[in-house]
Write a structure and sequence with these properties.
single chain; 711 residues; mainly alpha; abc type-2 transporter like fold; 4-stranded mixed β-sheet; 22 helices; 4% strand
């Protein structure tokens, strides 16, 4: 009997009762349940994160920046609410903590109270990083914690970009301000250069002026020296003048004292009081003198004149005694005393005249000969006295005033001369100081002229430096960017997120289920083959009992499971494609490849069961575990320990996973062909080993009749 017929007979046994049919149906659906349910449950977990409750605590108190209110926490809350990343529930800190502990929330995100202040500190002197606080509880779910770290990394990056945009916007605004200020500084430098040019010309004029001033100071120094010499001479002369004026003042003082004393004497008072009478008497004397001169020839004899002289003298003496007795020694002089005094005066004058007349008449000393001339002189003098008598008192007073005025003037002259002497001394001292000052001025002007020379040189260098400064500022202003609002917004966006990720997935898997389908499909087919050989014998008993060739016996035990496996794969693929929406890049290739996978897995499981009997089922399960851990179906195999990396190239599921990835999502078909070759080799090898095992099973042994282990 041929192998396909033997296989058909083996399958036909499942149609002889309800239970076998149910077992066959369960066998067909077992890979479907194993693979489809797993993929269904993990099909798109990231797309349903909005069902995960997460506590959101916004404790941000906000901040004020440049007079504007900043509430970065509110902005983040609005962004998170709109993103619908999780099922955000705004709550308090204590409720969030309790909810995270009892599993009400899988995560909690806390925006601290100083979050806005820390964000705003980026523009201050002490910038601080604003930190969002995320709390997870792996006791609730570990995967959610891992997912949250990825999600919150995006949230943190978005918040950082927003804060960076604000920061860079201020920087670019500062650039514009700096550009404007530098431009103003450059214009100021131009004006400074103009001013320095004017100052440079002024420095030249100052130097020329100081040259002339130095020449003038030299002449001044010489002139002041000459003045100092002249002041010395003036001081000496003024000293002598002061001495002379003092002496003159002393003389005038004595003169004034004498004049004033004379004016204040009784005689003077009498003359002033009786000037009119004196004038009258002088007139009379002049008349008498004239008469006497006319009657000189009528002079009496010597005896007569002698007698007259004696008589006049006696009369005058008697009258004098009477006057002394009655007027001078009396307690109360009588009223006639003034007249008596006049009479006494006249008597004495008469006595004197009589004596002189006698003398003259006697001519003892020749005076008689000179008598006419004396009479003329007497007459002349009397007439003058007569003429001056009315103004005699006033002239005496005038003379006194003149003498006093002369004395006062002499003293003022003396004082002036003393002051002149003092002034001359001070002038001498001042000119001495002025001479030293002129010398110092001359030296100072010389130094100032040297300084002006250096100043002129410095102004030249300053002018050159200001020109370079203005040029540098203009160049700097050109290099400092001056952005408009649109350009500033564009650059702010680039600087806030300078490195973009241009992610383009080649042969992208649209969802989580598509990515894991190459891992779960071979797993379910392996389990299907493993369970199938729990219902089907690995070696067809009929062929084995009939002594059919070993290869035919192996094929008779292999083909029924392959047929069941193909149906399992078809059912699984139909549900994945039409039930869950799995898209196959190479549908026909995938179907053919899964048939090859089914044949290969059935051959391997068949050999293990045929060779090791009930223990082979345990080996099949162990081999499944080794393939799942070394196939690289979830994480790259390189991330696994070295043991699994060593097993990876020697197990068929590694090539199945690799081939299915390229068939489902597309890519280089070389991996598919390599997997086909490997699976074909595994199937051929397993069938050969099964045939070898069938050959040995044609001879029954005690172990076959009494197996050590039965499952």
């Amino acid at each position: 009997m041929r192998s396909p017929r033997l296989a058909a007979l083996e399958l036909r046994k499942f149609g002889r009762g309800a239970l076998p049919r149910a077992a066959l149906v369960a066998l067909l659906l077992l890979p479907l349940l194993y693979g489809a349910l797993y993929l269904w449950s993990f099909w798109d977990p990231y797309g349903r994160l909005d069902k995960v409750p997460v506590a959101l605590v916004n404790a941000d108190r906000g901040a004020t920046v440049d007079g504007k209110r900043l509430t970065a926490g509110d902005s983040i809350v609005d962004g998170l609410r709109d993103s619908r990343t999780f099922r955000w529930r705004e709550t308090g800190a204590e409720e969030a903590r309790k909810g995270l502990e009892d599993g009400t929330y899988y995560l909690s995100l806390t925006i601290p109270a100083d979050f806005s202040r820390r964000i705003a500190s980026s523009a201050g002197d002490s910038p601080e990083t604003g930190a969002l606080q995320v709390r997870t509880n792996d006791a609730n779910n570990y995967i959610v914690g891992s997912i949250s770290r990825t999600v919150f990394s995006e949230v943190r990056a978005a918040a950082s970009r927003k804060a960076s945009r604000s920061f860079y916007d201020r920087i670019f605004v500062s650039f514009s301000t700096l550009h404007g200020k530098t431009q103003e500084a450059a214009e100021g430098a131009d004006k400074l250069g103009d001013g320095i040019g004017t100052a440079r010309k002024g420095a030249g004029d100052l130097k020329d002026g100081l040259d002339k001033a130095a020449e003038g100071s030299g002449r001044l120094r010489s002139g002041v020296g000459e003045l100092y010499g002249g002041a010395g001479k003036l001081d000496d002369a003024s000293g002598r003048l002061a001495d002379g004026a003092g002496k003159v003042a002393a003389g005038t003082r004595k003169l004034a004292d004498r004049v004033n004393g004379a004016a204040a004497s009784p005689d003077a008072r009498y003359v002033k009081e009786h000037a009119r009478e004196i004038g009258e008497d002088a007139r009379k004397v002049a008349a008498e003198a004239r008469t006497l001169r006319r009657h000189l020839d009528d002079l009496p004899s010597a005896a007569t004149t002698a007698k007259l002289a004696r008589g006049s003298a006696a009369g005058a003496e008697v009258l004098g005694d009477s006057y002394a007795e009655l007027c001078e020694r009396a307690a109360e002089p009588p009223a006639f005393c003034p007249k008596l005094r006049k009479a006494l005066f006249a008597a004495r004058q008469s006595a004197l005249g009589a004596r002189e007349l006698d003398t003259l008449v006697q001519n003892r000393n020749g005076e008689l000969d000179a008598f006419p001339a004396k009479l003329d002189a007497l007459r002349s003098g009397a007439e003058k006295l007569r003429d001056k008598a009315p103004t005699l008192a006033s002239e005496i007073d005038a003379a006194v005033r003149d003498v006093n005025a002369l004395d006062s003037g002499a003293h003022r002259v003396a004082d002036g001369a003393g002051k002149l002497h003092d002034g001359a001394g001070k002038l001498r001292d001042g000119l001495g100081t002025a001479s030293k000052g002129a010398a110092g001025l001359d030296d100072g002007l010389g130094k100032l002229r040297d300084g002006a020379d250096r100043l002129q040189g410095g102004m030249v260098k300053l002018s050159d430096g200001s020109s370079k400064l203005a040029g540098g500022l203009h160049d700097g202003a050109k290099r400092i960017p001056d952005y408009g609002k649109d350009e500033r917004d564009a650059r702010t966006g680039v600087m806030a997120d300078p490195v973009g990720l241009a992610s383009r997935a080649t042969h992208k898997a649209p969802n989580y289920g598509t990515g894991f389908a190459p891992y779960f499909i071979p797993l379910s087919l392996w389990v299907g083959a493993m369970v199938a050989y729990m219902l089907f014998p690995p070696l067809n008993r009929r062929a084995l009992a009939a002594g059919a060739p070993a290869w035919r016996t192996a094929l008779a035990g292999w083909l029924p499971v392959v047929a069941v496996g193909v149906l399992q794969a078809a059912a699984l693929l139909a549900v994945l494609c039409w039930g869950l929406g799995l898209h196959l890049a190479r549908a026909a290739g995938t179907i053919g490849f899964l048939c090859l996978v089914t044949a290969s897995f059935a051959a391997i499981v068949q050999w293990l069961n045929a060779r090791f009997g009930p223990a082979g089922r345990i080996l099949v399960l162990m081999l499944l575990m080794l393939q799942l851990t070394s196939a690289g179906g979830t994480y790259p195999v390189q991330t696994s320990p070295g043991f699994f990396n060593a097993l990876h190239p020697f197990l068929p599921m590694s090539y199945v996973v690799d081939g299915l990835r390229h068939l489902i999502t597309g890519g280089d078909p070389a991996a598919v062909w390599r997997a086909c070759a490997v699976l074909a080799a595994f199937a051929a090898g397993a069938l050969a080993l099964t045939a070898w095992t069938a050959r040995r099973r044609q001879v029954w042994t005690v172990r076959d009749l009494h197996p050590e282990l039965s499952l």
